[in-house]
Design goal:
By secondary structure, the protein is of the alpha+beta class. Helices cover 30% and strands 32% of the residues. The longest helix is centred in the N-terminal third of the chain and has 15 residues. The chain is elongated, with a radius of gyration of 18 Å. The N and C termini lie far apart (38 Å).
């Protein structure tokens, strides 16, 4: 019943990996919130739901892994996992036995898409050298 999403970004920089790791951690904390834990080259984010619609029906866990395929390139690959929380199950069971109207909350679980928030977090990684892409509005408009 879990749902998975992925996000990705590649940056070219001459900064040391520690600077990049700190920038990624800061961008995740500011953009998606939640609890951010760093283990080596992996960031684990628990319940990073800032500005996410309908987050009250799901538990969210994300892992962002940083790899360095070349000396001047860093890849950021994130995997986001949604799983139903207790509110989802309570409304589902209550809706089955009593009020079918409560199933509307269960439908919201299938509408949640956290990719845009986590992609925005990766796009906001600022290394202070202008290596981050400019923030562009929808459909390429500035």
């Amino acid at each position: 019943m879990n749902r998975q999403f992925t996000v990705y970004r590649r940056i070219k920089t001459d900064q040391p990996p520690d600077v990049v790791f700190n920038a990624v951690e800061q961008a995740l904390k500011l953009t998606v919130g939640g609890t951010v834990v760093r283990n080596a080259n992996t960031f684990t984010v628990n319940n990073g739901t800032n500005n996410l619609n309908f987050e009250f029906v799901a538990e969210l866990r994300a892992q962002v892994v940083l790899t360095q395929p070349a000396t001047d390139t860093i890849d950021m690959h994130g995997t986001i996992t949604l799983s139903p929380n207790s509110f989802f199950w309570i409304t589902g069971i209550t809706g089955f036995f009593c009020l079918g109207l409560l199933w509307g909350f269960n439908v919201l679980y299938f509408v949640i898409d956290p990719r845009s928030n986590y992609q925005l977090a990766l796009d906001r990684v600022d290394l202070g050298l202008g290596s981050s892409p400019p923030i562009v509005g929808p459909y390429g408009a500035s």
